[in-house]
Amino acid sequence: MLFLAVLGCATTEVEIRERADAGYYQNHVRSDLVRTQIDETFESVRRIQSTVTYRTYQFDLDNLPRQSYLRGANFEFIAVDRKVDTHSTAGTALVLSAAQRGRVGLLTAAHAATFPDTIWHYSGVRVEGADNFVEAVSIRDNLNQFIFTDDGIELIELVVADERRDLAMLRTISPVGPSANLIPLRVPAGDISQIRTADMIYAMGYPRGVQMVTQGLVNLTQHPIRTLMMDINLNRGFSGGVVFAIRSDGSGLEWIGIITSTLGEREHYLTPDSVFDNDFVPDLEYTGRIFVRSTMRIYYGMTNAVDVGNVRTFLYENWNTLRDAGIRVPLLP
Description:
The longest helix has 10 residues, at 32-41. The protein has one domain (30-324): Thrombin, subunit H (Beta Barrel). The protein is built from five helices and 15 strands. The radius of gyration is 26 Å and the shape is globular. It has a six-stranded antiparallel barrel. A six-stranded antiparallel β-barrel has the order 10-11-12-15-14-13. The termini are far apart. The protein is mainly beta. 10% of the residues lie in helices and 44% in strands.
């Protein structure tokens, strides 16, 4: 032990103690194994990005066509206006399998990786089975999807999706070399029947494109698909993130689920014209046009996940499709 005394008009003694060990910080469960597993698992949990372009055809509001009339029609001759919109979405994917011929298989949430070829915009409330009036139709023009690797970005493509379970398998379009460091998950799959409410979990993903690991508690639900609910804050980009539980016997992490969604509701609100942002004067009365817009209000801390049992069923149901795509599906216990 070192001792330092500072003398002056008043004597002040400051005691400095040397650390008894090498000095390091501890994680929540005080496990070096868990720390190592988390570091290694980020080689398998990766950020994905999608950029999609839609061409939208808008029709005469005073003479809207019915959906049956538009099927097979040339929208260029019918539309009164056209516009092109590009949207980008981020997500998280799990490297689940090293595919044949150097391509890699990736598991993610379906909504983070699937984009319809055609989007119908109906007038008023759509009635199921009826020949509804259509205000506009959006046709997908272009779709680019890629994964971030240690060696830059790699293009990826959809192999199969299950919208009910909100799961999808992707693969890299080209062979991926060792420098990309896309390592299939080494943490074993867990036994979902052993999960109990209030068990501690770790979640890993890329909310807002930022690599992040967070910790929380799990709750079991009665939903047939979204069986796990966690008290972690879901932000955009976390969809497809991976959930791990911690074995009580000290053997480390086990994979128990894939993050899919959070709870929320759509809110409608009044807003001024978009040009108002450029001419805002706080003390001047607004006299311009007012519009009704909507947004999703997220209930943070109520995050859903699909358990590894449903993942197993999804993989087995699509075994032939994945095999034909050159993806060797791991045998989950």
